[in-house]
Amino acid sequence: MIVWLQFIICTAIIVFAGIKLSTYGDIIAEKTGLGRTWIGIVLLASVTSLPELITGFSSIVVFDVPNIATGNVLGSCMFNMLTIALLDLRTRTAPISSRAHQGQVIAAGYGIFLLGMVSYSIVIDNKLPTVFWIGVNSIFFILTYLWAMRMIFMYERRRKLAALKEVVEELQYKQISTKKTYLMFAVFAVVIIGAALWLPYLGDRIAEMTGLGTTFVGTVFVAFATALPELVISFAALRIGAVDLALGNLFGSNLFNIGILAFNDILYVKGALLSNISTNHLISANAALMMTAIAIVGLTYRTRQRFLFLAWDSVGIILIYMITTSILFSMR
């Protein structure tokens, strides 16, 4: 019971600090002259993925539970795509996929590519070459992430004239000093680091107590806790009508998450990380891939029809998430 209470407290701290951190990240964006779309895919996605980064560090270095680290990353990718369907529930005028800019497909497409590479790396086991102990696939993940960020930046710059509305909104934080902005950003970053460091231990304890297994606990419970900042920030962005900021945060977080896998591989000195984990992670990786593919189709087709308050693509995303969680539970 105490472990569950600690898990809930950790989750609450991450949500609160994640909201504050992302707010001050948005203020930094204003003061540096960056646009909201770029902020959603790069800066917000990075800061809201900080719990996954720190959880991966503590899972590998402190507690030596690589399945928790990997399950956390892939489970967060699944939960981020589920958040799109949850955002769709919040909209009333039209499905969220019909309101977002189709440029979101670039980040989503790279997400599919990287998730496919993750699955490929798990399947071929130890056959991939390594640089020292680091899998060559991890180097490829990092290079692909950097290339994706460059391509998205170039695309956003080309359509800058179409985003003039963002320029009007840039002065909403002018009363907050630059010094305070950076100070508070650092404070809430430290709070998130402290809470996230404790999550792998709690996840391992829950796995032992319930017999659910580290793969299931990492993919569901720990991933849920560390992905909550993305959920909260995306809903906050939707509330102010910034749909592209909300979706950019989610697709960008998935890209950053695969970069975290590469970071975890560097820390895991026993060998290539994806060659030393349960093959059950293939299920969550492929589920995240399928959910992202459905999101791309929704962004492209832009349907106006709904089924039980949801667009058909949101229904598909929810079904895949539920089926995948059930399969992982049965394989615990």
Characterization of the model:
With 332 residues, the protein is an all-alpha fold. It has helices spanning 2-32, 36-48, 50-62, 66-90, 96-99, 104-123, 136-158, 164-168, 178-210, 214-239, 243-267, 281-301, 312-330; strands at 130-131, 134-135. It has a two-stranded antiparallel sheet. A hairpin with a 2-residue loop joins strand 1 (130-131) and strand 2 (134-135). Helix 3 packs antiparallel against helix 4 (66-90), helix 4 (66-90) packs parallel to helix 12 (281-301) and helix 4 (66-90) runs antiparallel to helix 13. The longest helix has 33 residues, at 178-210. It is globular. It starts with a helix and ends with a helix. The mean pLDDT is 84.
Order of strands in the sheet with the most strands?
A: 1-2
Low-confidence stretches: none
Output the radius of gyration. Answer: 19 Å
Strand content: under 5%
Give me the count of strands.
2
